[in-house]
Sequence to fold (145 residues):
Amino acid sequence: MDVLTKDQRRKAMQHIHGKDTSIEVKLRKALWHKGYRYRKNYKKLPGSPDIAITKNKIAIFCDSEFFHGKDFNEKKDKIQKGTHGDYWVNKIDANIERDIRIDKDLQSLGWTVLHFWGGEINKDLASCIRTIEDEIFRKKIEEGK
Fold:
């Protein structure tokens, strides 16, 4: 059962944006502060990665837990029982399949794909930055060979 009225839920859903989300902005600012330059919502690549470090061919996606299906198998039954359950289960399943397809497309173009959950960015931003820096370092070593 939804704790919000239909009108409240509609207004809440209208405020969900596909780009420049708080988690994207937080990660981008941290990268910029460390001197890394990137493209945001890079449309020249499949899936328009939230952050694309073109110099090192690294595509970064900042995924919200609900819409991209974090622990979806465990939560599927609960979502199914909720308001418009069939819609949300199908939507999230399709999102997961699309994310996998886009990752494969990017990898076939020689890009490394990184995904970070919103909670991960909010709770441990330093670890996310470290993961990105490790990948940049790995790529630099690869190029040197």
User: Anything to note?
Assistant: The domain at 18-144 is CATH 3.40.960.10 (Endonuclease; Chain A). The chain has a mean pLDDT of 89. The longest strand covers residues 58-63. The beta strands are 39-40, 51-53, 58-63, 112-117.
